[in-house]
From TrEMBL:
Name of the protein this chain belongs to: Phosphotransferase
InterPro entries: Aminoglycoside_PTrfase (IPR002575), Kinase-like_dom_sf (IPR011009)
Stretches of the chain forming a coiled coil according to its record: none
Domain Aminoglycoside phosphotransferase: 40-244
Pfam hit, one: APH
Membrane-spanning ranges: none
UniProt lineage: Bacteria, Bacillati, Bacillota, Bacilli, Bacillales
């Protein structure tokens, strides 16, 4: 049975009717359910097996993902999905999109989130296991993956945010905007001064997007890490900084609380780490996205990003001041 209310940014109902017909021709055992998860990711249930189908813009990206997950498993890291051969044993290709056939992992009733200390630590432990595995084969992927450069990435995001200020000021007033800009400027200046530290750690393959939705707890309780679209090569601190930015709102923007996590303790007094923690990566990312997509007319999205920017403003400001005191 086909799932109802199928929608995506890729097209209208006619597109999905064609897509569904194509998948029917490839899954000859009969599709019992077909529905979107997000974007070009779909769930297909057949009588024999369930699959996740994920679309890629070109053949190379698909093959890179297949090779990477296969290497992970070969090197002993099993806490993720496998790519499977399609039932038709042919490559799945539809209207410019290449589809990979992924193992379906049944989700636990208790979804992973950053709301509990145990979950947050478990996520960090899994990232560390992922790094420990990928450092053994990152040399084989150096010609295939980009080199991570968090300073360049965040500098670009900062300048884009500055360019978006004329629009953004319709939604956020002073002194909030100037404070955010000042945090970013101070952070980037310090990171530039301390950037040699980012070259001292041995390179690993970084996940690149350690948001809560890229962790999946299966029905047995085992935690998996998924979605490797943004993998790149660099020092582990880059993933840990992104993770810290994600969990700080859940630990009261407290540096002491952050240091209760095993993987963060080794950076306790490291200036490169302290400066980077002050960068408002989440605020800049979400505002730049809303303005790029012109989705500021979406009241739900707008409310969320305003809450992110203003609702936590005082706590975040105190956190930045604490970082400055530690660096004096």
């Amino acid at each position: 049975m086909r799932a109802v209310n199928i929608r995506s940014g890729n097209g209208d109902d006619a597109y999905f009717d064609r897509l569904f017909s194509y998948f029917q021709s490839q899954f000859q055992g009969g599709i019992r359910k077909f529905g979107p998860i997000r974007g070009d990711v779909f769930l297909i249930k057949t009588k024999k097996q369930n699959y996740i189908l994920k679309g890629y813009s070109n053949h190379r990206k698909l093959k890179l993902q297949e090779a990477f997950t296969a290497t992970l498993r070969k090197e002993g890291f099993k806490k993720t999905y496998r790519f499977l051969e399609s039932p038709s044993k042919e490559e799945l290709y539809f209207e410019g999109t290449h589809y990979g056939c992924l193992e379906y992992l049944s989700a636990n009733k208790s979804a992973f989130s950053f709301h509990t200390h145990s979950n947050r630590q478990e996520g960090l432990d899994l990232i560390e296991q992922f790094h420990d595995t990928t450092k053994s084969f990152e040399k084989r992927y150096r010609t295939l993956l980009p080199k991570g450069d968090i300073l360049a990435k965040w500098t670009e995001r900062y300048h884009l945010f500055l360019n978006n200020l004329p629009v953004l000021r319709y939604f956020i007033k002073e002194p909030f905007v100037s404070e955010m800009v000042s945090w970013a400027y101070w952070s980037l200046s310090g990171m530039e001064q301390q950037q040699t530290f980012y070259h001292n750690e041995a390179d690993v393959i970084l996940h690149g997007d350690v948001a809560h939705h890229n962790f999946l707890r299966d029905k047995t309780g085992k935690l998996h890490i998924i979605d490797f679209d943004l993998i790149n090569i660099g020092p582990p601190i880059f993933d840990y900084l992104q993770y810290a930015n994600r969990i700080l709102p859940f630990i009261d923007w407290s540096y002491d609380n952050l240091l209760t996590y095993t993987q963060m303790k080794k950076y306790k007094r490291e200036p490169a780490f302290l400066y980077a923690l002050a960068y408002p990566a989440d605020i800049f990312r979400e505002w730049n996205r809303i303005i790029r997509e012109k989705s500021y007319s979406d009241e739900t999205k707008l409310k969320q990003v305003i809450e992110l920017s203003i609702g936590q403003f005082s706590d975040r400001k105190n956190f930045v001041e604490q970082l400055k005191d530690l660096l004096e």
